[in-house]
Amino acid sequence: MSRESANFKIAHAEAALGAGRPYEKANEGHNEMYDNMRELEQQHAKQHTHGPSHESRGQRIDKELEQEDKETIKKMDQAYNQRHKEEQ
User: What would the pLDDT profile of 22-59 be if each residue is shown by its tens digit?
Assistant: First the structure.
């Protein structure tokens, strides 16, 4: 395996430390035992969700468009108010 690849393995803990990589990946909960299948499914669903910190691409685009609309409306209101002040 060449060093250029992104997934090269590090053989020793000292080499890993020098490279700024963890020596072993933490596998918390990997060997846990569950009393029933429902608990296992719940834990699996919890581990493999994006969580509330990640919004979908559509939600992000909607927020951006909403912000642009607010800015456009604000500019239009300012122009309207300025035009009517000049007429008076």
Answer: 656 555 556 677 788 888 888 888 877 766 667 788 88
User: What φ, ψ does residue 5 adopt, rounded to 5°?
Assistant: -70, 150
34 close to 41: Cβ distance less than 8 angstroms:
no
Q: How many CB atoms lie within 10 A of CB 13?
A: 11
CA 35 to chain centre: 32
Identify residue 74 by its one-letter amino acid code.
K
Tokens of 56: 């979908």
Rounded distance between C-alpha atoms, residue 37 and residue 62, angstroms: 39
Task: Taking the CA atoms of 71, 74, 78 and 83 in sequence, report the sign of the dihedral they define.
Answer: positive
* Residue 1: per-residue pLDDT: 47
Which residues make Cβ contacts (< 8 Å) with residue 63, sequence separation at least 6?
55
Query: Could you give the CA distance from residue 65 to residue 55 in angstroms, rounded to a whole number?
Result: 15
Name the H helices within 35-56: 37-47
